[in-house]
Design brief:
This protein is an alpha/beta fold. It has a five-stranded parallel sheet, sandwiched between helices. Bound molecules: adenosine-5'-diphosphate and thymidine-5'-diphosphate. Thymidine-5'-diphosphate binds next to helix 1 and helix 4.
Length: 204
């Protein structure tokens, strides 16, 4: 048995965690088990790394940052995501390796391909089947954040680079789809469910 791995992506404040939870509710039916996870975090090791990344240090070097995100992700993949997928469950993730491609690869200038390679080493075949990018203007995203973390609070330029990076990545990666995140929550959830059904349910 093999489940499905769906990542929600976008700039800070785009609505990922709210939408992921609501979409999970919609997709739960019959015997389908749907579990939500978040990055960085989702495991005891990952939550400890999250604290270092987002709340306790403001002097992280770009590659330290990238490797810590990759370490938290490798732990989540081995400990949680892979066993769930093996059991046939669906995993909906608030962020994924695609955040590292956009924020560290593009935003920090480390290179999208190199960041992909480093992350792939820790993930093996645990890679999202579908990446739903919620698109929202960077100013609106910042306004939606109640308490910005270290990276979310850096300012508009980084968020704009990240938004552009998702578009660039999608040019060569058919797993990436875009949903207009500026509309009401009901509409964003409806469109996200529709694209998931089209790509992962009706096509199988
Ligand atoms: P993210 O996980 O992308 O940072 P959140 O899901 O935490 O975003 O949402 C940020 C804030 O915006 C929350 O207060 C949430 O209730 C609100 N929000 C999410 N989606 C929408 C939407 N479509 N319209 C208006 N507000 C939204
Ligand atoms: P998150 O908790 O999802 O923040 P938000 O809800 O504001 O979107 O993510 C925390 C921050 O970490 C966010 O600014 C994006 C950043 N991040 C990266 O830079 N690289 C990564 O690989 C991940 C997973 C997150």
């Amino acid at each position: 048995m093999s489940g499905r791995y769906i990542a929600f992506e976008g700039i800070d404040g785009a609505g990922k965690s709210t939408v992921a939870e609501a979409v999970a509710e919609e997709l739960r039916s019959g015997e389908r088990v749907v579990v939500t996870v978040r990055e960085p975090g989702g495991t005891p090791v990952g939550e400890a790394i999250r604290e270092i990344l987002l709340h306790s240090h403001d002097d992280l070097e770009p590659w330290s940052e990238a490797l810590l995100f990759a370490a938290a992700r490798a732990q989540l993949a081995a400990e949680t995501v892979a066993p769930l997928l093996d059991s046939g469950a669906w995993v909906l993730s608030d962020r994924s390796v695609y955040s590292s491609l956009a924020y560290q690869g593009a935003g920090r200038g480390l290179g999208i391909d190199l960041v992909r390679t480093v992350n792939a080493a820790g993930l093996g075949d645990v890679w999202p089947d579908l990446v739903v990018v919620l698109e929202l203007d960077a100013t609106a995203g910042l306004a939606r954040q109640e308490e910005p973390d270290r990276i979310g609070g850096e300012g508009i330029a980084l968020q704009e680079q990240v938004a552009a990076a998702y578009r660039q990545i999608a040019e060569t990666d058919a797993r990436v789809v875009f949903v207009d995140g500026s509309r009401s929550l009901t509409e964003v959830v409806r469109d996200s469910v529709a694209v998931i059904r089209e790509r992962l349910i009706e096509s199988v």
